[in-house]
Amino acid sequence: MANSKFEYVKNFEQPDNLLPNTWIVVRIDGRGFTKFSNKYGFEKPNDRRALDLMNAAARAVMSELPEITIAYGISDEYSFVFHKSCALFERRSNKLVTTIVSTFTAYYIHLWSTYFPDTPLSPPLPSFDGRAVCYPSVQNLRDYMSWRQVDCHINNLYNTTFWALIQQGDMGALEAEEMLKGTYAAHKNEILFSRFSINYNNEPEIYKKGSVVFRDYELVDPGTHNAATEADNLAEPVLHSKNQTENDKKHRAKARIVIEHLDIIKDEFWDRRPWLLSNKPGKVPKET
Amino acid sequence: MANSKFEYVKNFEQPDNLLPNTWIVVRIDGRGFTKFSNKYGFEKPNDRRALDLMNAAARAVMSELPEITIAYGISDEYSFVFHKSCALFERRSNKLVTTIVSTFTAYYIHLWSTYFPDTPLSPPLPSFDGRAVCYPSVQNLRDYMSWRQVDCHINNLYNTTFWALIQQGDMGALEAEEMLKGTYAAHKNEILFSRFSINYNNEPEIYKKGSVVFRDYELVDPGTHNAATEADNLAEPVLHSKNQTENDKKHRAKARIVIEHLDIIKDEFWDRRPWLLSNKPGKVPKET
Amino acid sequence: MANSKFEYVKNFEQPDNLLPNTWIVVRIDGRGFTKFSNKYGFEKPNDRRALDLMNAAARAVMSELPEITIAYGISDEYSFVFHKSCALFERRSNKLVTTIVSTFTAYYIHLWSTYFPDTPLSPPLPSFDGRAVCYPSVQNLRDYMSWRQVDCHINNLYNTTFWALIQQGDMGALEAEEMLKGTYAAHKNEILFSRFSINYNNEPEIYKKGSVVFRDYELVDPGTHNAATEADNLAEPVLHSKNQTENDKKHRAKARIVIEHLDIIKDEFWDRRPWLLSNKPGKVPKET
Amino acid sequence: MANSKFEYVKNFEQPDNLLPNTWIVVRIDGRGFTKFSNKYGFEKPNDRRALDLMNAAARAVMSELPEITIAYGISDEYSFVFHKSCALFERRSNKLVTTIVSTFTAYYIHLWSTYFPDTPLSPPLPSFDGRAVCYPSVQNLRDYMSWRQVDCHINNLYNTTFWALIQQGDMGALEAEEMLKGTYAAHKNEILFSRFSINYNNEPEIYKKGSVVFRDYELVDPGTHNAATEADNLAEPVLHSKNQTENDKKHRAKARIVIEHLDIIKDEFWDRRPWLLSNKPGKVPKET
């Protein structure tokens, strides 16, 4: 029985390969996580278990997809970055996005009981949506990352103050909202300190900075590499010899994937980790 | 602290709304399921537990997304159909695809232990990729569904014969492959019957037909409705009154989602279930 | 000298094939025609020479591209329709749009002196932009055509009244604009009739209805064909035998391309000319 | 009379804005120019009048669209480059491509009689198709330009030899083709020189190098500017003050548009004309 009569329907599928030589950022977001976090009693303003679960899922995604060079997460969202020379799945947008969304979801569900041992999941289950965006230059990519980290800071300062007013200041949600309307960062810092003796600077880094996930190699001295300019000058996918590619893969597999809470807006983070922009594995640190 | 300096990066996100007035099919596929099925010892040619798990995940997706009108699954793939008038997520491709992929994955992982109680999951976890395709006419949509069901039949007849040769005929894989090369359906039926006394027609319907998932209403008499022509004539999203929409929603929520193994190529399946093409809920059957 | 070092840049070109089995409408618009029409002293509210030039260019486009089934023009815009089964240029959007825009422009410039013999063109020259839009069903296509013809009527009634107030009523532009603000069709008809003894119904059809361009065959009796339903049911490009295609081509080449000013909103226009929706050449009328 | 009933059809138009911060190249090609050039008796291998007409049309396009920074033409094709910061027409692909194609065609037809005074145009008229491609980095853009110039050289050397064999060597087309099959540049140079005493290096630059069109400012010393790196570092459209933009416009309007036949593969061309990559008008040369 031939299938040819119906096979013409395959022609309706449209190609979705992303523009070559651009950085691909896949961002995923929790669907309806306000409701979800209430159902499972997430602590406010930040639930450490929930963040650790997000980070564990992100680390697993990076481990299964070594083509991802760096990831950054805040709250219920995570951004995964593919190097501009990446050719995974021929850069097909749907393949890249759904593979990340599905892998992330799988680990989020699978690892849930590790981080929430006393509250088993029940339907409706948590899920994530996602999208891919192309950024032509290193500056665009870094501005994207900076945008997310600034958002993390803005939201966390707001939420920390908001929930302090409610939890320690006995305010209602509307009252707290009203009070914070139009305030600047300085005002919120002042409220936290004067009313609740909270020094915002001493809050945990994971809440203030979010989480950045990457492969760990030996830091280099600032000024010794120029990975950003090299990356911008890179015109097409570098075609290594087969051996070189295999070597790189083994190198990457050996590298430890770390989760840090660092400033990714300033140059230093990128200058000292040239492998993030060059896509060439760094030097594996000595045993520690 | 304003975020305006970096916010320009939002402009790089490109719209992906699918063409209005077309049927949207989101098909998802298991990633690397050959390896995965070996790891967990899936039975060959079909593992009933694995299919039941796929079906349970598909039913959960339909339950969470009432905008899906029908779904069809074979092996490690599932197709979900949105009516041509569907306006969910403004028809943004990424939102539709990732929501389905993520929800499906979540239930697949969550329900795994129900169907495989003795073999707990371990990394790397199963995952799925997906894509959305638009079909302009009812005929295109039905041809797509027929294409998948013909594929189901072709693959299942081949696999049933192939594994009979191996499991009962003591052949090696290469030998069996060689023997089946270029054979027609009649040959395979003959091999099954003469060598192994297997009448392919008596094989379970779920293996021969795949699984079709939909909301169950009272069947209508063929010829009394013309949902296909009505659907093709429909030019734009029908704007019901708010009340009507709410009523439809309640109606749908009440309807039982069933999983059947029927012929979806012939007209009868569609003629007797006009709600699948009209998107108007049918009559809820009396208690049985 | 091999060109291979630079040829990778070809990979940046992205496919733009339009969704199969949908009607393709290419609409072109004059760029900056208000200024242009002032420069060449176009008569207001309608310049017959300018419309005749537009129509002559459209006829030439249809003659060079027999795959176009119908075209409709008003003012400085023209819409060209490709049948849903059309496979010209593999349905690549850029090829279809630029070929029409370029051919139209070529004839507009070339024929200018025929219609404006006393006012030679000088830079900046007139030009047109264009875009392709897909419509899945016959109803969508007809609604598109109706939309343009309703626009023609609305604009022409307004412009006829506006310019009567100025040219015969000695009003200034602002005064006329103010007077017409918020008026319904009936008011404008009334103004034309009572003030200027103009019966709008007696205005030339070309101004009231626009221009529709198509191949002329023998009209059929309404109700004898059902081209719309047949077209909607058509699922994929019909694959004729080579001979059939050649025959169709010759048939089309023989057919006279006519320019009419008819109502294309009502069913009659389409019912009596089934070849417009079926894409099958009709019967060539006897010599007249 | 309201138009609302049909206006929903506007929703079928899909956005086509090109990725920000990328160089946009619009390339246009003559449609069926082999046939066209035979019809009008173009000289082989190069017809100077035809090239001059192409160049005149390209210059007119650049004059009407000051956002174009550079153009490059060979044979019946022309590439127009918009700076990566260009925001013309909100970077809508169709608007950019059709405007260029239409304007180019208009001038080609209009100026025809200047360059071919003795052979008036007759239907079918010459026309052009076009497409837009995005290039993320300066290197990609320059590689695109180099690709075209290398093509020019390869084609011209081949055509020069091919037509010498035919016109001066009395060969037939097939025989000449056969003779040149698989030959390298050196062979062709040798054939030209030994058989026909033609030194290919002495052929006119316009044939060997093609034509590059740009605004003329004072050349700068190589090494004093780094426009390429600056351009790559540029992350978003530069928002000048309104005054600055107006000044730039006036500056550009004053600049002479020149047509040269230079090597655009080597660095020197770009190093000495930093305004091509920086998009900042250079210094207008003193009267000469």
TrEMBL record, chains A, B, C, D:
Residues 139-266 form the Thg1 C-terminal domain. InterPro entries: Thg1_C_dom, tRNAHis_GuaTrfase_cat, tRNAHis_GuaTrfase_Thg1, tRNAHis_GuaTrfase_Thg1_sf. Its cofactor is Mg(2+). Mg(2+) 2 binds at residues 29, 76. Keywords: GTP-binding, Magnesium, Metal-binding, Nucleotide-binding, Nucleotidyltransferase, Transferase, tRNA processing. It comes from the Eukaryota. Transmembrane segments: none annotated. It catalyses: a 5'-end ribonucleotide-tRNA(His) + GTP + ATP + H2O = a 5'-end phospho-guanosine-ribonucleotide-tRNA(His) + AMP + 2 diphosphate + H(+). The keyword Transferase applies. GO terms for biological process: tRNA modification. Binds 2 magnesium ions per subunit. Its EC number is 2.7.7.79. It is an enzyme of class 2 (transferase). GO terms for molecular function: GTP binding; magnesium ion binding; tRNA guanylyltransferase activity. GTP binds at residues 75-76. Belongs to the tRNA(His) guanylyltransferase family. Adds a GMP to the 5'-end of tRNA(His) after transcription and RNase P cleavage. This is tRNA(His) guanylyltransferase. It comes from Apiosordaria backusii. The lineage of its organism: Eukaryota, Fungi, Dikarya, Ascomycota, Pezizomycotina.
